[in-house]
């Protein structure tokens, strides 16, 4: 199981939309995915149209009152499971900050899932701040996927999160953390600004930047209000095509080369 944190400390850049629709796309491609909603705003949970009873979140897991298995709920979609979130999860920041293992607690919990072989990918949706939940996610992840909005302030934010990734790597918590990718969101090819931002990012991060870009579309924006993924809301539209292509590119990047090909 690979743990992928979808992270950017800026809000409104497409983290939740990307975590949710990439997870859905991977599930449609036969990958077993556990989506973990680590944002107290619980947008992944509501965006999937899931209602959960109080106490359904990582909160009791992070405070050692429940196991992660107890908090996993089915989403009604094949191959896609969820650990939901709720407003109360915000309180765990304070509890975690008090403990001396706060950086590694989530990491240890998720590492505990690996031997079970229940999921190929664990995707973490993270809150828009550099608080304890976010740093826990970075410490727990094998890889980071950064959604980046095509605007100038997006570039400033990128520099900041790359700095935080370096700090996490430099700590004992997670020296092997990799920046798996940067995906441009809300792209509008008609604007010079969108094209300039893409050019700038590809200059500094040529390896990491996904060639797939997520366009700004009305359908992507409205899907969560129906509790649907983009594949359920507008199966053949541009948004579904883009997130499908993103999942294909993601899987190509993660493909282990077959021995015969590697030998050539
Ligand atoms: P974050 O999780 O980073 O705060 P969201 O994924 O919630 O960002 O996106 C912020 C808002 O923008 C949401 O209302 C979402 O529906 C909308 N949105 C995200 N991506 C797109 C897109 N490609 N096209 C149109 N609207 C989008
Ligand atoms: Mg979000």
Automatic annotation (TrEMBL):
<dbReference type="Pfam" id="PF13614">
    <property type="entry name" value="AAA_31"/>
</dbReference>
<dbReference type="InterPro" id="IPR025669">
    <property type="entry name" value="AAA_dom"/>
</dbReference>
<protein>
    <submittedName>
        <fullName>ParA family protein</fullName>
    </submittedName>
</protein>
<dbReference type="InterPro" id="IPR050678">
    <property type="entry name" value="DNA_Partitioning_ATPase"/>
</dbReference>
<dbReference type="InterPro" id="IPR027417">
    <property type="entry name" value="P-loop_NTPase"/>
</dbReference>
<feature type="domain" description="AAA">
    <location>
        <begin position="1"/>
        <end position="178"/>
    </location>
</feature>
